[in-house]
Design a protein that fits this description.
The protein is α/β, with parallel strands linked by helices. Helices cover 34% and strands 14% of the residues. The longest helix has 16 residues.
């Protein structure tokens, strides 16, 4: 046996270009498959439930990011006046919201240690070249690797 390496603490997040806040607002039988409730509660895409089991971590519904959640967040910020009356646009407002979400969920403790994960695996689901995915792809180009 070679030397043992410490296993990094790993989190995961799933981005879905579905334009809705909750992944269960569709017909699972006909569309994207069943949805799971992670051990911490909340509705998430099936993939995130699989990551939770494979990585032996406890993910939250915050780790499941949909276009609907991102746009709702941007609209709420606009209504609060966070953008100081500026015109809200995909770049930079929506892409900044996506980056902020990545930064936030990548620091949520998931392995019971109470410490930030060492690594956060990000899944970009759905079809990469469809219009709803474009803000996520643009964000990928704007987010420095950390």
């Amino acid at each position: 046996m070679r030397g043992s390496w410490p296993r990094p603490s790993t989190a995961s997040a799933s981005f879905s270009a579905l334009v809705r806040r909750r992944p269960t607002w569709h017909l699972p039988r006909y569309e994207t498959g069943p949805d799971l409730t992670p051990s911490t509660g909340g509705e998430v895409d099936l993939d995130l439930g699989n990551y939770e089991r494979y990585l032996s971590v406890r993910l939250t519904s915050e780790h499941n990011i949909t276009t609907g959640k991102v746009y709702l967040n941007v609209i709420q910020k606009e209504r609060r006046g966070d953008y100081l009356g500026k015109t809200v646009q995909i770049v930079p407002h929506v892409t900044d919201s996506i980056k902020d979400w990545i930064k936030r969920v990548s620091t949520i403790p998931v392995d019971g240690s109470g410490e930030e994960p060492d690594v956060c695996i990000i899944e970009l689901g759905w079809v990469w070249l469809c219009t709803p995915c474009l803000p996520f792809l643009k964000d990928k180009n704007l987010t420095p690797s950390k």
